What we know:
Blueprint: E1 2-6, E2 9-17, E3 20-27, E4 41-49, E5 52-56, E6 59-63, E7 68-71, E8 77-81, E9 87-95
Antiparallel strand pairs: 1-2, 2-3, 3-9, 4-7, 4-9, 5-6, 5-8
Amino acid sequence: MYGDERPWGYFEVLLDEDRCKVKRIIVHPGRRLSLQYHRRRAEHWYVVYGTGIVTRDDERIEVGPGSSVDIAREQKHRVESTGKSALVFIEVQTGD
């Protein structure tokens, strides 16, 4: 397990295999990731703690503990933490 600090928070890699990676991502209150997309991988996000908004193409989806969002290949996406505490979610990446 290893982590990577970013301006918005940090992540820890829990599993890293050829066609699958699992991360625990922590987004500090009031912060957000950059808008991005991936040509060759899909992602599934499961929220563990906190509240936030996921932007997926033109959608804005409110998320909280127990909610999940699927990100298809080539979908533009980002997440932001909107609560007073950090947003924590598990990301499962599939593809290469």
